[in-house]
Each structure stands twice: as C-alpha cells, then as structure tokens.
Amino acid sequence: MKGLHLLTLFITAAVLNHTGGKRIVMFPGLIKSYFLYHANIGQALIDLGHEVWICMPEYLTHSNLIKNKDIKVLKFGEDLGDILQRVSVNTSMFDNFWKGIDTNSNNAPALTKVMKELVAKVLSDQTFINNIKNVNPDFMVVDGFKFLRNIFVLPCKLGVPFAVIGTVHDLVMHRVPFSPAVEPAVPYRVNNRMTFYERLSSTLRTVLELSYDMFTDSDIVTRIAPEKPYTTISDIILKAEIFIAELDHILDYPRPMLPNTKLIGGSSVSEPKPLIGEFKEFVDESTNGIVVVSFGGNEIPFPSHIINKMVSAFKQLDLNVVWRANVTSPVPDKLMTSLWIPQNDLLGHPKTKVFVSHCGKNGQYEALYNAVPILCFPIYGDQFYNSERIRFKGFGLKGDIRKITEEELISTINELANNKQYKINIDRASKLFKELYKVPSKEAAYWIDHVMKYGGDYMRSSGQEMPLYQFLLLDVIAFIAAVLSGVVVIFILIVRFCYRRFFTKRTVKKKKE
Fold first, then answer.
1. Cβ within 8 Å of residue 66, ≥6 positions away
2. Average pLDDT of 459-476?
3. CA-CA distance, 494 to 502, in Å (whole number)?
4. Is the pLDDT of residue 8 over 70?
5. How much is the pTM?
6. CA distance 490 to 221
7. Is 115 helix (H, G, I), strand (E, B) or coil?
8. What distances in angstroms separate CA 305 from CA 321, 402, 405, 470, one per listed residue?
C-alpha cells in the first residue's frame, strides 16, 4: 500500500508539473469553523489547476466538513481526541462564561498553554511530518490563529514558501504602521471611536504585544528544526509571501494595509441554494417569516434555564424559529430544532427576518452576504469584538444571553424584525460587499496563485525585513535622546561655568570690600 501511495504521488507530481499546477498543503485552525473556509479556498485553488491537501485532526475527519473529494486530507492527532472538548475542560471556558467570568482575559493563559501543548504534539508526530514530505508541497497556506503560531515552524522546517491566512489582520505581527488610537484590537470590545481610557488601554496593550509574545516559544525552531539557523516564529511569519485576512472595510473598520496584505471578506459565503425536505416544508408554512438561531458548529453546553428561557420566548413570537440545537421542540410546527441546519440557505431565504447568533466569523459574514439583521450573543474569543461592530454599524443588536430576560429577548427580536432601519443598513452593506469582494474564496485563491507564480518580494515592506528595534525607531529615538541629553548636559555645564566664573567672583569681591 505504501508503494502504491508513493507511486500515486509520483504520477500526480508529473501531471502537475506538466500542467503548471502546484501541490499546496493547507493547515487550518484545529476547530470546525476554520475548515469550512479553508475548504472553500482549497476548492477555488483546484479550479485554478492546483492540487490541494488539507491537514486535519482525526476527530474532525468524520464531520463531512470537506465536501469536495478532490481535496485530499492529511490526518494527524489520533491521540489528541476532541480538541475543542479538551480546550473546554482545561480552560473551563464555558463554565467560566456561565459563572459571569470574562472568558477572554481569564482564559488566555490557560488556552495558550493547552494550544502550545497540542501544537508540540503535532510537530513531534514524525509520521505526519513524513506524510507532508511525501506530498512534496510547492506551497503551504497556514492559518494565522494566534494560539497556534508555533505551527509556523513547519514551513520553515520543510523549506517551503507559504502564505498566512486568518480571521484577524494582526497589525503588530505583520509590521503594519498604525495608531492604537483608531485601530481597535481583536478581541477587545471597542469600536474605532474610542474614549480616552480606551485609547490608553489600546496603547498599553500594543506596547505589551510588541514587548512580549505569549503565543510562541522562543526555542521552538531549535527544538523542532535544529538543522535550521536560529530564528523566532515572529521572524518566520514576516517571510510570508502574502497575508490574507478574512476581513473587509464594510463589516470591519477601515484599516491601514501594506501591499502584501489582502482583505477578502468572509470566504465561507456562497450563493444560497433552494431549501429542500423538512426545512423547505417548515419555511413554506411560516407565513409571517422565520428567525434562524445558531451558535456555530461547535456544540455549546447551554444550562437548562437558558434553554428554557429561549424556548419560552421563541414560542411567543409571531415568527417561526429554526434553531440549530440538541433540543427537543415542544411545538414542532412553531419551533424547528435540528443538530444541523443549512444555515446559509436559510439566511438567503426571503422569509428570514432575523439571525440570532454567537456572532462567529462565518455566521456574521453569511448574514451580511444575505442581508439579515443579527442579534448577537457573544460567548468567547472574537465574538465580543464582532458583536460590538455589528451594533456600531447598525447591522443588528447585541446582548448577554445570561442576563437577558424572556420578555427582553422577545422584544429585541421583534425590534430587529420590524424596525426597517436595520434591514436597510445591512442590505446596503451586503450590496457593497458583493460589488467589491464578489467571491472571497476565489479572491484568496487568485492571490495565492499569484505569489506562487511571481513571489511576494515586490510587495514586501522594508519594515518587514528589519529588526523590530529599527522598525520602532528605537535606535533613532535613542540617538535623539542622547543628543538632547548631551545638549542639556553641555548647557548645564556652561551655566555652572558662567555662574562660577562671574557670580562667585563678584560675591568674593564684595565680601573683601
């Protein structure tokens, strides 16, 4: 079997070299939502004539996340188990949230520790590394998820050029000149109209990020790729041929960019397909319209009192509800529950009035694309940041699922469904997005294909090639400070000399007289 596998790789390599296609290995984040948009981009790369392999942990290989069978899977982590469950247990992420504890600031150290341990196990899996070597990739696409940054040692070890893609445009890591006064950092809960204290906090956070990177190990290259010269993960990342961010200037805030950064919007979006089966029947019978409720592809353990509150509120709405949840509906003709829903197709149906969501990246872009106002109930990660910008831009409202009452939940959904201004705002943004970004997955594939042909050096800023102290002008500041200090010292010495030369002599003369 192994010989047959190698023969297949050899034949595939010969065909690709003849057609000009490349072998591309993609490494998404380790949870479901990341694989959805990587698979879309992978499909677009296949359409351009390339061969695509996606690295996937064992626990997700049976989730049917990759629909296209032309995308090949490189499995790893048979002993890692359910990674999201592991993270949840080790960080108490959901338990802390239901207790009212800030899930971002309090869980960050524990999450960083768990993720570093997971990445270390992946990088020490020699069978997985050999499987990638057997593919003999021409290019890699690595997710920029900050908690997985150590994985960037992989293209360094293999000597393969790579692109960075992710849900965040990391201004600090990518060496983009910017002002913390107007660039809100993910995942913090501010918009780009910050108060003085928010600007102060943003500045202090930026200084901290510049001085200390908690997400990487300084010795990771020495440990995993001892044959390579010493370098850091930060320096490796700066060698990327291109940075592709799942952001845009419509849903997000306008931001400064370097030429080798491309904002593409949400590549999980696509044109909705007609509903079929029980979903079509339910929506057709919903004369007043529907509300779509989904808290993402990862199962969130809701306490029973939260579920009861939501069920009771949904039963009282004039709108029918389709809810992705492991809950048995007490009124199936009014409230449809299912472990899986065709979310994008439901959001694209004209009867959908409101989307109730935790406001993850994929869901909010599908809502934007289909022009559906959003009621945001953030729980962890960038969801708080996403929710604030939805509120700030008038695309929806945000709340706290723990604190909102049954009556408030009903009235908030009705406000979004009946107040036309929310629909007008997001409909205009949807039209802008479709006109400017068209098909984001194809845009991402175009730029990856482009840098594989021509390289990305011509777009790279000199600030991405110099040491950090030079980029921050610390040497220039030190020189100016030294010159000013020298001038001040000389001035003081001159004053002291003049004082002693003239004033002291006069004083002595007067005393003698």
1. 35, 39, 42, 54, 56, 73
2. 89
3. 12
4. no
5. 0.86
6. 48
7. helix
8. 19, 10, 11, 55
